[in-house]
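Input/output pair, single chain:
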Amino acid sequence: MFKTLMVAVVGLGLSVAVNAQELVEGQHYELLPSPVETHVEEGQIEVTEVFWFGCPHCYRLQEPVNAWYETLEGDVSVEHMPATMGGDWNTHATAFYAAESLGIEEELHADFFNAIHQEGRSLTETDDIAAFFAEYGVSEEEAKQALTAFNVRSEVNKANSRMREMRLMGVPALVIDGRFVVTPSTAGSLDNMPQIAQALIEQVRAERTE
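Output:
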């Protein structure tokens, strides 16, 4: 029933076989004291990737986590949620939701990361973000309107509230089913995060069939 996964032992740098039944709370993941409301249809399992575009660890997670997303079964839904911790974090969260409102977020998501971490662009000024958005078929004026729109500010505020409910003090993080929080610290490495998350998905499936 459970898939066997390879996870690193924190502090030892070793790998051992750990299946979903053997996951240890506080070692491989943290369990939220109160579940966070999920945004998926009944029967779906939500995976929330919490990130900041400016975070180098979030950037390095992209390759393993995107490869994992390609393997997910149809009962799993992935949500990207930008972290909001003030300053540039909120600016990038605003850019995320503005791009989403314009229908270009999915297309530019990876490019936004690359622009910051490969090209050295900070993308923290409205004019710079608007110019970046203009590369995806919207005008700079449309981009600026989206960046200051009430609905976008509302989404940033909702993300801020949800991040507090998840008790997150940093990123990246993967939150499974609104209950289980996987971080580089609990997983042992960035590469192990998708493996631990997959085991937790298997655990949720097993719970739902009991």
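The longest helix spans residues 193-209. Residues 1-17 have pLDDT under 50 and may be disordered.
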